Structures are given as structure tokens and as C-alpha cells.
Automatic annotation (TrEMBL):
PANTHER family: ISOCHORISMATASE HYDROLASE (PTHR43540:SF1), PEROXYUREIDOACRYLATE/UREIDOACRYLATE AMIDOHYDROLASE-RELATED (PTHR43540). It holds the Pfam family Isochorismatase. GO terms for molecular function: hydrolase activity. Residues 4-184 form the Isochorismatase-like domain. InterPro entries: Isochorismatase-like_dom, Isochorismatase-like_hydrls, Isochorismatase-like_sf. Transmembrane segments: none annotated. The keyword Hydrolase applies. This is Cysteine hydrolase. Keywords: Hydrolase.
Length: 195
């Protein structure tokens, strides 16, 4: 029997602030988190984070190099340890004993111990949510599929700055490697499986 985990990826204060136009996102995501917990499905929070001074970031890295170069040496900003903007949004924060995995690049697996945590827990099925659809969700779908995880993407549990990119990814790209459903559909499926 498959054992699932819900991944809540990059739902951090500074990232959420960039997507303030969708004020329904966090309540929707909270419903998914609550449903997972009620069904004893582990909720794993994945965050991007670095050491102070960003020694993990190469200037050659187009995505993260700009973050490192914008932060004065020694400051706790730019998703460095102690940066308040790097904290998980309180609307979906982990409960006591919740698992938080810190990654160093776009994919939830890059520079993290996520695969080890999943294998140790006997998890073979992932339910993906996060910000952004074209970032962490896309990269994680691709890598998780290559690692032979069974995948579900919660379409309205993901956000992207470009609605058309979100539509194409969730409607055309992700279905090749994952089941794509809404949060309500997923909650109904886990409720019926428990009955």
C-alpha cells in the first residue's frame, strides 16, 4: 500500500509577500495541511535556506547569485539563517515535531536530505504544493518522477507569477508525470480512502 506525504514547498514569508494578490491561497493550502494531518499523512515543509554570507551560492548561479550579491556581508537576510523573511508563513507552519527540510537550490531535493527522510519513512507517494509552480514545483516534479515517486500535484495548492505558465504546467506538462487535482478533490479522495 502506498504511503504518502504532503510537501509544502517555499511557503516562506518573503516568497508569500510576492504573491499577495491571491489572498485565497493560504486558506486553501491550510485546508490541505489540516486534511493531511487529520488523515495521518505526514506534512513535510521544504524551505530554501543558506548560511550567513551565502557560501553555498556561486556567482554563476543566475537564480540565487543575485540574492547573495544583494545582501551585505554578515547580514541575516536573503534566506540566510536567522532571516525572518525565510520563516514559514504562520498560516501553514509546522506543528510540534513537524519536519522541515532545507534545500539549497530550486528542487526540493537539491542540497537537502529530503530523499533520505522520505525513504526512512517508507514514503513512496508525494503530494506537491508550493510557490512557484514554474520553480520548486516543476523542478521537484521532474526530480521526484526520476526517483520513482508516485506524484500528485494540487493545482490550486500551487502559485505562479504568470497565470498562463501555471495553466500550461498544471494542464499539459505535469499530467505526464503526476496526477493533477484540486485541493477539494484530493481531500475527498483521502476521506473516501479512510472510509
Amino acid at each position: 500500500m502506498a504511503k504518502s506525504a504532503l510537501l509544502v514547498m517555499d511557503v516562506q514569508q518573503d516568497i508569500v509577500r510576492r504573491y499577495a494578490e491571491d489572498d485565497g491561497y493560504l486558506p486553501r493550502l491550510r485546508r490541505a495541511v489540516d486534511a493531511a494531518r487529520a488523515s495521518d499523512i505526514p506534512v513535510i515543509h521544504v524551505v530554501v535556506g543558506f548560511r550567513v554570507g551565502h557560501p553555498e551560492i556561486s556567482a554563476r548561479n543566475k537564480s540565487f547569485g543575485a540574492i547573495a550579491s544583494a545582501v551585505p556581508a554578515g547580514e541575516r537576510a536573503g534566506f540566510a539563517a536567522g532571516d525572518p523573511g525565510a520563516s514559514i508563513h504562520p498560516e501553514v507552519a509546522p506543528d510540534d515535531g513537524g519536519i522541515v527540510v532545507t534545500k539549497k537550490r530550486v528542487s526540493a531535493f537539491a542540497g537537502s536530505d529530503l530523499d533520505m527522510v522520505l525513504r526512512a519513512g517508507g514514503i513512496d507517494s508525494l503530494v506537491l504544493t508550493g510557490i512557484a509552480t514554474s520553480g520548486v514545483v516543476l523542478s521537484t516534479v521532474r526530480q521526484a518522477a526520476d526517483l520513482d515517486f508516485r506524484l500528485t500535484v494540487l493545482e490550486d495548492g500551487c502559485l505562479d507569477a504568470d497565470p498562463e505558465v501555471h495553466r500550461v504546467l498544471t494542464g499539459k506538462v505535469f499530467p505526464r508525470q503526476a496526477e493533477v487535482v484540486t485541493i477539494d478533490e484530493w481531500i475527498a479522495s483521502i476521506a473516501s480512502a479512510a472510509a
